[in-house]
Design goal:
about 350 residues, single chain, Na+/H+ antiporter like fold, globular, two-stranded antiparallel ribbon, mainly alpha, 2 strands
């Protein structure tokens, strides 16, 4: 497991980051142009492709989405409130807050879920996949979500089924709330942030994708010209985004804010998620299976709450002229640090007895 995390998840990501740093150093590549390629081509392609082809059932989706929203909101309030109380520069504070709030739930978190919990929970626990029960969400691999009856154990825990909803929620929040935070911190108002969001393709692409998803569910086919193009762009998002990260890395990181982000993102994130999920368990036990996610898929959500800062945070920051150097350093060093912390959280999850095995 540890070797798989280091070599199968972290390894390829770090190689792409280093290649991006080398390309900029050797050829003076324009980082702003790389950012626009990501924002206006690869990210929309990713959204469209995965929303259209998702076959995820509702199940506990509402609870997973709510828990993710609550996690992001509490992290944001804690960091923003603390930063304002300490008089931290608004531009720096916005970068730090976004780096703590938005995490790499997709290409890192989903891969981690599949490695840590590869079981077929949906098949073992009873899947309900009627068309009226489907929900659209972004995930790199379309996976049926289970209606969890009881607590899956051992190999029946299917991490990717629950993680898919985290991916969708995180991406949507990053390109809406995150964009407005970054824009307003650059001297603009909240209205300026909203205008910047409306100029982005995210909202319109998701709307089109939801329509295309309904069209497919009604027995029609979306033209291959559209779906194939979106699929090609979707597959290009992760490598191009990581190359962009490498090209943006500063030579001398600002260790004080970077260290805070590493501690908040990699250590505090899972602790807070565990507390929130257990609190929901106490409040809704026996009353709402959608809101009571303990102990499963809470175990998966706690583990993936400690993954590194999302590369998409850098893309948004570059687009609106935020503190891109600090953001790039936070993404890079949280990715490096996660090799140790994720291993530690796996040991805690499996050895503590908090989550049944």
């Amino acid at each position: 497991m540890i070797a798989s995390i280091v070599f199968d998840i972290l390894g390829p990501s770090l190689v792409l980051v280093l290649l991006g740093a080398w390309v900029r150093r050797a050829f003076r590549v324009d980082v702003a142009s790389l950012s626009k390629l990501n924002i206006y081509l690869f990210v929309p392609g990713f959204f469209f492709d995965h929303v259209v082809h998702s076959t995820l059932g509702l199940g506990q989706a509402a609870g997973v989405v709510f828990a993710t929203l609550l996690q992001v909101a509490v992290l944001g309030l804690l960091v923003w409130g603390g930063g304002r109380a300490l008089g931290v520069n608004r531009r720096t504070l916005a970068a730090v807050a976004m780096c703590v709030m938005f995490y790499n739930s997709g290409n890192f978190g989903l891969a981690l879920s599949e490695l840590a919990y590869p079981g077929e929970a949906g098949r073992s626990a009873g899947v309900s996949e009627s068309r009226s029960d489907w929900v659209n969400a972004a995930t790199p691999t379309p996976t049926p979500t289970a209606r969890y009856s009881g607590t899956p154990t051992g190999s029946t825990k299917n991490g990717s089924a629950a993680q898919a909803f985290v991916v969708f929620t995180q991406n949507l929040l990053n390109f809406s709330v995150g964009l407005m935070i970054a824009k307003s911190a650059g001297g603009g108002s909240l209205r300026d942030g909203l205008r910047a969001f409306l100029r982005m393709p995210t909202l319109y692409v998701i709307t089109a994708a939801l329509f295309a998803r309904w069209w497919r569910a009604d027995g029609h086919e979306v033209p291959k010209l559209v779906t194939a193009t979106a699929a090609y762009l979707s597959k290009g998002l992760v490598p191009v985004a990581l190359v962009t990260l490498g090209a943006q890395l500063a030579s001398a990181p600002r260790w004080r804010p970077v260290s805070f982000v590493m501690a908040a993102r990699l250590v505090w994130g899972p602790v807070q998620m565990a507390a929130l999920l257990y609190g929901l368990h106490v409040l809704f036990r026996g009353r709402s299976s959608a809101m009571d996610l303990w102990p499963w898929p809470a175990e998966n959500l706690v583990l993936t709450a400690g993954v590194p800062t999302a590369v998409n945070v850098l893309l948004v920051t570059l687009e609106v002229g935020g503190d891109a150097e600090l953001t790039a350093d936070c993404v890079f060093w949280t990715t490096i640090g996660s090799a140790a912390t994720i291993t530690g959280w796996l040991v805690v999850a499996r050895a503590s007895g908090v989550f049944p095995t």
